[in-house]
């Protein structure tokens, strides 16, 4: 019974890491879009609050179209321990804000 309980705990922990990565990606994209909206460095804003295990492989893309600043942040999901091996799939967070930069 102990191995089954341990396996269940490991799987639950992994699901927590996946959910946390989705939360981090969404928040980082929102921070990047906000920074881009006022002409700040959106890539720096996206990675500023990310833990080191996630920020090292983070991919940030920012662009402006139609008066909106769009930001996309892509993060890797760690396997069991942040900073170790990552799954071969990415988690993406996207956000947009109205550009407040002077024209």
**Helix content range:** 40-55%
| Rg of Cα set | 16 Å
Distance between the termini: 66 Å
Largest sheet: 3 strands, antiparallel
The helix/strand class is alpha+beta
Q: Residue-averaged pLDDT, rounded? A: 88
Uncertain stretches of 5 or more adjacent residues? none
Number of strands: 3
Q: Oligomeric state of the chains?
A: single chain
- SSE pattern, N- to C-terminal: HHHEEE
Q: Number of DSSP helices?
A: 3
Query: Looking at the structure, what is the overall shape?
Result: elongated
The fraction of residues assigned to DSSP E strands is 25-35%
In order across it, which strands form the biggest sheet?
A: 1-2-3
List keywords for this structure.
alpha+beta, 3 helices, 46% helix, 103 residues
Gist?
The protein has 103 residues and is α+β, with helices and mostly antiparallel strands. The protein has helices spanning 2-37, 42-48, 52-55; strands at residues 59-65, 68-78, 86-98.
Describe the structure.
- With 103 residues, this protein is of the alpha+beta class.
- The protein is 46% helix and 30% strand.
- It has 3 helices and 3 strands; from the N terminus they run αααβββ.
- A 3-stranded antiparallel β-sheet has the order 1-2-3.
- The longest helix has 36 residues, at 2-37.
- The chain is elongated.
């Amino acid at each position: 019974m102990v191995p089954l309980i341990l396996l269940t705990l490991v799987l639950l922990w992994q699901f927590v890491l996946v959910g946390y990565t989705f939360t981090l990606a969404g928040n980082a994209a929102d921070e990047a879009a906000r920074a881009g909206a006022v002409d700040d460095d959106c890539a720096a804003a996206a990675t500023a609050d990310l833990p080191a295990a996630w920020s090292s492989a983070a991919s940030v893309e920012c662009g402006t179209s139609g008066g909106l600043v769009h930001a996309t942040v892509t993060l890797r999901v760690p396997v069991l321990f942040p900073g170790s091996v990552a799954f071969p799939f990415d988690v993406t967070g996207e956000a947009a804000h109205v550009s407040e930069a002077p024209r």
